[in-house]
Specification:
By secondary structure, the chain is of the alpha/beta class. It contains 12 helices and 13 strands. The chain has 2 domains: 10-197 and 383-408, Rossmann fold (3-Layer(aba) Sandwich); 212-380, DNA Methylase, Chain A, domain 2 (Alpha-Beta Complex).
Length: 423
């Protein structure tokens, strides 16, 4: 059978969130067949933007093997994605052994789905600290993860990748673990970008990473309490990064400013680049809750005004309270966060922009209101352009392996035919 120029790989995303991981693989040419995600609003976002995918909004631990096989087995996914919340392994039953052991966490669900569907690749994303983490028996967590995938017959590779190295205007380090049925010579993509003002000889070929201002300068100017969920552009794109993320989009979604009080706006107005709440004049310091007295506690990382000519700090799930716009006296909008994460403008986030504290909802028993808001969905996501770089590199590796297989087969059979140039 003749080889195809570009094989289309099928992808199933577990712990899928809003779909940033999947989107990157889609941008690299893959077909997204499905997702498993427990949160309702994140599932709605995934389904809206991946309309052909089967999205199971469910707790993965409650899905039987038979249900997973009946739903996704017929599609024979080539790639399984997942970012199980392993940070503290806090989902562990306290009576079920070491809470720092990934085998007692949701990581085991990724292993279970992988053992059922047997994809060519399993790609896991998580926080970098897992590299240093150890169980109470002093076993390295990354060694346990590697061993679990090895037992399933996979070659395993892990590396911490920095988002700015791949053109994402954000300082964001994440651990990626790749489990592959085929041995990979170069499992992780080479750097394509640099933040160095004067690159050394080894980095002269790299492109300058976009800055925060490169990412958001074309978005409509908003004051606090302004904006709406759907709006028009007010200026053309100013650079290649903006042109890339605006491609295919005629309108702008999720660009609505926070409803800040006048006092908070005044506090932001007093901040220079790099300043945070702890740097404002005394009369603008935060007040205690339900009080006119100043709070004795200030958090240096809260509401820091970002430098426009640098990559942004890491966008967390609660970034609506972490960063102040470099020029406007307000926090970022959800769309500005999405730009910094490298989501294209056509990607529409569902659910409310923000919700009250999840701790408060737990305390008051309002669990039916506990959903991932737009900011949570964006902050939790794998930057799509980083996922795309990973996917493209992996697909190239698999295509090379497939080509070598055909060349070897021809040589063994004695055929004189040259391999197809369409590979």
């Amino acid at each position: 059978m003749a080889e195809q120029k570009h094989m289309t790989y099928s992808v199933l995303d577990t712990f899928a969130g809003a779909g940033g991981f999947s989107l990157g693989f889609q941008l690299a040419g893959a077909r997204i067949i499905g997702a498993i995600e427990v949160d309702r609003w994140a599932s709605e976002t995934f389904q809206y933007n991946h309309s052909d995918a089967i999205v199971m909004q469910n707790d993965i631990t409650q899905l039987s093997d038979r249900k997973i096989l009946d739903t996704f087995g017929q599609y024979h996914p080539d790639v399984l994605l997942g970012g199980p919340p392993c940070q503290g392994f806090s989902v562990c039953n306290k009576n079920n052994g070491d809470p720092k052991d990934p085998r007692n966490s949701l990581f085991e669900e990724l292993v279970r789905v992988g053992s059922l569907l047997r994809p060519q690749l399993i790609v896991m994303e998580n926080v970098p600290n897992i590299i240093k983490a150890r169980t109470t028996k002093n076993e390295q967590v990354i060694d346990i993860i590697t061993h679990e995938f090895n037992k399933m017959g996979y070659h395993v590779y892990h590396q911490i990748l920095e988002a700015t190295d791949y053109g994402i205007p954000q300082i964001r380090k994440r651990l990626f673990v790749i489990a592959s049925r085929k041995k990979l010579a170069n499992p992780f993509p080479p750097k394509t970008h640099t933040t160095a003002q004067q690159p050394n000889l080894l980095e002269m070929h790299l492109v300058n990473c976009p800055t925060l201002w490169d990412a958001i300068s074309d978005l409509p100017i908003l004051n606090a309490r302004e904006g709406q969920e759907e709006t028009d552009y007010t200026m053309p794109p100013q650079n290649d990064y903006q042109r890339l993320l605006r491609e295919g989009s005629t309108q702008l979604f999720n660009h609505k400013a926070m409803n800040h009080s006048q006092r908070l706006v005044e506090r932001f107005a007093a901040m220079a680049w790099g300043d945070s709440t702890s740097d404002v004049p005394t009369h603008l310091r935060p007040l205690r809750r339900n009080s006119t007295e100043f709070s004795e506690t200030t958090y240096d990382q809260n509401n820091r005004r970002m430098h426009p000519d640098r990559p942004c700090h890491t966008i967390p799930a609660s970034f609506y309270a972490n960063f102040v716009h470099p020029f406007q006296h307000r926090n970022f909008t959800a769309r500005e966060g999405a730009r910094i994460q490298s989501f294209p403008d056509w990607y529409h986030f569902k659910g409310k922009p923000t919700v009250v504290s999840h701790k408060l909802l737990h305390r008051e028993g309002r669990l039916d209101e506990k959903h991932l808001c737009q900011y949570n969905q964006i902050g939790n996501a794998v930057p799509p352009l980083l996922a795309k770089a990973i996917a493209k590199n992996l697909f190239d590796q698999l295509q090379d392996s497939l080509r070598d297989h055909y060349v070897s087969s021809w040589e063994k059979s004695g055929t004189k035919r040259e391999p197809s140039k369409q590979v």
